[in-house]
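Below: protein 1.
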Amino acid sequence: MSRKTITTTELIAEITRFRKQQQSLLLATCSEQGHPLSSYAPFIETETGDFCLLLSDMAEHSQNLHYHQQTQIPCSIMLIEDEVNCRNLFARKRVTYQCQVQVSNREQPQWTPAIEKLQQKLGKTIELLSTLADFKLYFLTPQSGNYVRGFGQAYPLDSGCL
């Protein structure tokens, strides 16, 4: 059985559709001592393709992002197909990105539009969380990545496909 070749345009469209179906992402960070941490967070996507998260300073992943935000690649994220919807657990559709991080607080101009978009997508909980002093916005900018469509269908992602 031969597999159809996918063009870059088709690949970008497929990744875009997949990203729009997701409401949360898996987040991989590292502590100041070098200990890895897996976590997750709900997100929105900005017009520029960044992932925007509203996180508490008390959360361990926030502390890790703060500590490493000036490094080349402070975190990795993954969006993955739901187990219930996949045909084979070994070949779940997924996209991973290595990201740079920018932290924003309520005094910065991007705060209000991002909070409004988060509330639109994720509901009233954002209204409450955004009023709490320990919550900040984190903008994760993909630098490189990898998209897996299934068995034998992995595609490295560079600046043209992020």
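Below: protein 2.
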Amino acid sequence: MNIESLFIPACVSVGLNTVSKKQLLQEMAEMAVSCGACAHTNLKTRDVVSAVMERERLGSTGVGHGVAIPHARLEGLDQVRAVFARLETPLDYESIDDRPVDLVVLLLAPANAGGDHLRALAQISRLLRKEDMRARLRSAPNAESLHLLLTEKRVAGVA
């Protein structure tokens, strides 16, 4: 599994406008169901929200620098998928650095995909830990540009 396979172009959003963490997770779950991240499943938005909120109760997935990576494992999924949103206005997310969040990756994995789930989480975390990548994502003009940035091939040791 590589990061390029995690993101479907339709699962990338620019300018998402929400007023609360709960609304953000609801809208991202709706996007996951409608964009194809949950294709070939019977998963509903409420299933995704419930699983993600259950994980959030363990501790915030706001990892700092304006980034959040909410994630959950769900019965019925057959592969790990990610949904990306750049928020119109940064949002309080109870992040570890207390900064508001504007870059969010919702990561969904099959219930039995422990290793794949952790590898995907690590790949996304490494990507978004880079200051220059966060800056490029924040300045990208549209969803297509965001998708290209998220999935561009990286040369080992360079990016």
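The longest strand covers residues 81-91.
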